[in-house]
Specification:
It is found in: Cell membrane. InterPro entries: AI-2E-like (IPR002549). It contains 13 helices and no strands. With 361 residues, the chain is an all-alpha fold. The protein folds into 2 domains: 29-170 and 191-298, no CATH class; 300-342, no CATH class. Helix 7 (188-226) packs antiparallel against helix 8, helix 7 packs across helix 12 and helix 8 (232-241) runs antiparallel to helix 9. The longest helix has 60 residues, at 55-114. The relative contact order is 0.09.
């Protein structure tokens, strides 16, 4: 088979996969979540197998344990989180009005510090930002419906996801052997090397980065609640869960928390600085300790590429696209690096008489 035919086959398979995802996007959510859950839990099932559990019992024990933990967290925290979300949405216009009043009170000092023209520009920018934030909050319920987060969807995911995860975990080894059996024998070693790189990158995304995300959410929610910040639990959770987009979680949580702190604690500047310090301290811990330890060099995705993947796949596939965006970006980065490496080894890059170092003989 010529290289041209091989490329056409792979491109055709990719187009067919994208088309299938687009056609069935409305029913894909439980299958995508179930597959991610199975991938996440497979190492635990393998460990139980090493302890002489058979595959079925190991899968059952792990899945039931996870379901028990999730349900316990749900019944303990979800009612409180729901109340805080509703309260924050209702209180947000008041917070914006209070911040504008504080800014008006500080306007003489700001005019003296920045000058009248720059102070007016700052006030205009803050007013525009406040209007955009309020408009975004007002559209949240409609957007959740548009991307498929309805009661029926939640029930479907709740029921189907554990079933999908169970059967995928049960037959995980068989699926892996089946895929390996379909690989062309001549290129099997090279393809397996690519698949190992993809697995490493996916593990970094789902297990490593997912662990960082959950730790971020737990720390922010706990710290903001302990210092008594209004709606600190939900603000901290949102800031932590948005951390999968580089700097978005930090910027969102920092801005919202400091804004609430200004209204709540003014004129106590120490409390406002404490709220800001929580985010600055944890950003340092995350960047220098958590991320290198849990994720390491498993993924190397440019933040711009990450944001593009989220927006593009979210626009095309809705909520399913948002779930697939980060893993797909990780896979694409592996394939792009492989393609660049092969290109630099080819005669197209080296020339017909070029050596490995690029020299021409």
């Amino acid at each position: 088979m010529t290289l041209r035919n091989q490329v056409l086959i792979w491109v055709g398979l990719f187009v067919a996969l994208v088309l299938m995802l687009w056609v069935f996007r409305s029913i894909m959510l439980p299958f995508v979540v179930g597959a991610a859950l199975a991938y996440l839990l497979n190492p635990l099932v393998n460990q139980l197998q090493k302890w002489r559990f058979n595959r079925a019992w190991a899968t059952t024990v792990v899945l039931l344990s996870v379901i028990t933990i999730v349900l316990s967290i749900f019944f303990m925290f979800v009612p409180l989180i729901g109340q805080q979300i509703i309260g924050l949405i209702q209180r947000m216009p008041g917070y914006v009005a209070d911040l504008q009043a504080l800014f008006a009170r500080w306007s003489p000092q700001i005019n003296e510090w920045l000058g009248p023209e720059r102070a007016q520009q700052l006030q205009t920018s803050l007013n525009d930002l406040a209007r955009q934030a309020l408009g975004f909050i007002a559209t949240i319920p409609g957007e959740l419906v548009n991307i498929g987060i309805t009661g029926a969807t939640v029930i479907g995911v709740t029921v189907l996801t554990p079933v999908v995860a169970f059967y995928l975990l049960l037959d995980w080894e068989g699926m892996v052997r089946g895929i390996e059996g379909l690989l062309p024998k001549e290129h099997k070693g090279e393809i397996n090397a690519i698949l190992r790189d993809i697995d490493k990158s996916m593990a970094g995304v789902i297990r490593g980065q997912g662990g960082v995300l959950l730790i971020d959410a737990a720390f922010y929610a706990t710290a903001l609640s302990l210092i008594g910040l209004n709606f600190g639990l939900v603000v901290g959770l949102i800031a932590g869960l948005l951390s999968f987009v580089p700097f978005v979680g930090f910027v969102f949580g920092f801005g919202l928390s400091v804004g609430i702190a200004l209204v709540q604690f003014w004129p106590n500047w120490w409390m406002v600085l404490l709220v800001a310090g929580i985010f600055m301290f944890w950003q340092f811990i995350e960047g220098n300790i958590l991320y290198p330890k849990l994720v390491g060099s498993a993924i190397s995705i440019n933040p711009v590429w990450m944001m593009f993947a989220l927006l593009a796949l979210g626009a095309v596939f809705g909520f399913v696209g948002l779930l697939l965006a980060v893993p797909m970006a990780a896979i694409a980065s592996v394939l792009v690096r492989y393609g660049v490496r092969k290109y630099k080894e080819s005669t197209l890059y080296l020339g017909r008489n070029g050596g490995p170092d690029g020299s021409v003989g």
